[in-house]
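User: We ran a pulldown and think these components assemble together. Before we commit to crystallization trials, I'd like a predicted model of the whole complex to look at. Sequences follow.
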Amino acid sequence: LAKTTQPISMDSYEGQEVNITCSHNNIATNDYITWYQQFPSQGPRFIIQGYKTKVTNEVASLFIPADRKSSTLSLPRVSLSDTAVYYCLVGDWVVSSGSARQLTFGSGTQLTVLP
Amino acid sequence: GAVVSQHPSWVICKSGTSVKIECRSLDFQATTMFWYRQFPKQSLMLMATSNEGSKATYEQGVEKDKFLINHASLTLSTLTVTSAHPEDSSFYICSATSSGGAYNEQFFGPGTRLTVL
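Assistant: Here's a predicted model for the assembly, 232 residues in total across the polymer chains.
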């Protein structure tokens, strides 16, 4: 069971690049790393997913070192609307016999973007 | 993109009553749906995994007789909180994935706020 550790909170200013790191020392071979964004009283929203090295999409980049024991979410130029809780999720839900590996959400990082 | 809805968005009930929460995938077939619970200022905790047409798999510590999950079709899963008590008050979130294979992206619903008086 991969336990994850994230900073509880981070502050940034508009226009800056923000990097949030998640530690997952016990990540299993089949586990993927996924990052979600959650606003208050809403369901999480998918940001990015990766297995190793670097992944980039239109909103973020995800850096995963070779040992995969950590990952870093990079938000290039944050705005006020990026203020939210960011979760890293490590797991693999290969379904067999009606069961799936447990999916472990980190404690989340409250990102506050200041004007 | 894939959309998941939940109904109701919020519910208030008296202690001892049962509450049903629906989770629907609106534009895709969800072979697997997940139910999470989130207490204030805390992370999401996976409660159970449900696969269409089969019994749900519950995480350790989650009472399957209290949290009844039914996944009768590829677009609908329901969570029934039976004999609800104030400690069951929480934010319940479902998610769905469109394939039972590997690392598929989960699509989350908007959540249901349950308050038990």
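The longest strand of chain A covers residues 84-91. That may be worth checking against your pulldown data before setting up trials.

User: Thanks, that helps.
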